[in-house]
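Revision sheet: structure tokens.
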Amino acid sequence: MKMKVDGMHCANCAMNIEKNVRKMDGVADANVNFANETLYVTHDESVTHQDVADKVEKLGYHAEMPDMDGMDMSGMDHGSSMDMYSWKRIAASSVLTMALLFVSMGPMVGFKNLTNVPAINAFIEFVLVLIIATLGRDFYIDGFRQIANKTANMNTLIAISTVAAFLYSNYNYGLVLSGHEHAIHNLYYESIGVIITFMLIGMKLDMLSRARAKRSIEKLMELVPDTALTERGEIALKDITVDDVVLLKAGDKIPVDGEIISGKSSVDESMLTGESVPVTKFVGDALYAGTINLDSNLRFKPTKMGEETYLGQIIDMVERAQGTKPKIVKIVDKVASIFVPAVVAIALVAFVLWTFVAGDLAIGIEAFVTILVIACPCALGLAVPISIMVASSKAAHLGFLVKDSQTIETLNKIDTIVFDKTGTLTRGIMTVVKTDVDPETLKIVAQMEASSAHPIAQAIVNYVGGEITPIDVTTYAGLGIEANGLRVGNAEFVGVEPIHTDNTVVYVSGGGTIEISDVVRPESAKVVKNLQAKGIKVVMLTGDNEHAAAKVAAELGITEFKAGVKPDEKAHYIEGLQKAGHRVAMMGDGINDAVALTIADIGISIAYKSDVAIESADIVLNFDDLSLLEKAFRLGRKTMANIYENLFWAFIFNVIGMFIASGIWYALGGVMLNPMIAAIAMSCSSVIVICNALRLNLMK
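Predicted:
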């Protein structure tokens, strides 16, 4: 279950929701991505969306299902949260805060007092700060609600600190009214106004920055039109069925996946494949939602709609990756879970020491307020998820999909990559170059292979040519196929002695061989060389014969390879590497690679290949180009470096901020951090973390 959550303000909000939803009967797990405001729940049939929404509502947040009609998965209107951070409210708070600063601090910079009566000036400050506090009322509503729920978040710190400053200022206001005019210098009304205003501005900037990070997914959604022209008229995407016939004109965006039933046209598939050259499509060819029909009219039958389209699967995969958490988050979550209580404790200790030991109540109050303001954990909570979010979206734009954030973290640790040969290191465009099988038997072999998408099978089918009717076969993974007593596969399976040749050989029972040749991908040698240059060990495993494997290995500069390897042997080989302490990536494209892809620390496959292999993989390349592998590894390294940078700055900011705010530096002859400056700095910290994460978008 996936739900959009509104009203979260920091990492503690996310953890509060996770903790309470996990306690629900029937819920196995719950994860909240603070960066994209989404709750992911694993549950049984007894739990409904409404149950989860009600639970979240009791905690002070709002949750609802995203709109899943067609391809519109953009989520919900942010309601009260957007109103809280509206520009009108921010503008009003800013103007009133400037007026408050003028009244309280104007004389310090050369302006005359508004009046010569301190009590009147203090009263004006009191009224202004009450109005500003009303504009920022949501901080108090949520902050104290969290306390009532025995939790705490960023708003709790803001509420406690500003209420403490307000009460202390009211005490001094009372002294002013009783004739102690000097007490007006101990009013903190202007600090409260500045804190609230800059919190409103900071949260607005934070929200806008996170929205920018999510924009890449929204752009993918925008690739699909809202309606489609069919033979029964123009209809909404959600109303299209497999019984419809969709009509496309030149320049139309393709609304759903389908198969051409009439017409011929060039189609721009660059958004899926990264290839700028249009693809010519004929009757029977597949069309994909989001691509563009370029030059002729087409009629096609829909095959997949909405989230089931290939584009929908891309979006879902990106969102799933953004919703998962890498291991490093567990450490951050543990720190964040005790952070707010620890900050309150430190603030109380500073207050007690300054007030009762040093005997300075004013400094005690200032230290208490400043610590609570500057130590808000918003930047800490954003440090990891915002980087994962940007990286997942960037991966999709670079041409590959990452299924979960753990994969991004693991990419940085891979020291060995195992390649399948056929269709991976080689083009997989295979051609029969020699055969001694009689024509009648060869036609039966072609019928047996007709249902397979494997390049070797397709080579045989293409060689025989003509209209071929597939027949049912029994498949023996990694060995061959059998039908009506005829076996086709490797020498061991057929029961003959292997022949020595550089070609790939398919053996047919009863005598006869089919020799097939493949070509190495033009980019394979460069990719292998670059991976090896980065210290990554490259291994090739193939079910092909020794001679064919040796030829490809020599051409690519691979020193370690194994031929004649069965599917289970590939998995065992990878397990052996893992037991030896290696972190292993496996790249393959066939059904026989599925087990190895699952066993490996990271499985990599290519789109449009075996569905089983793609389902088993952690990374899916959107088009046939191995150079995407290098981009994947580079993105993994850059993302983890970005996360560590974010965590460093978030932790350093809080540590240094609390050190100065506590008054220790002041006691050593330095300055005391003013609560207003603390509010500005705290608001900027989250924006800095988000901007740093957005640098990942610059990668090419």
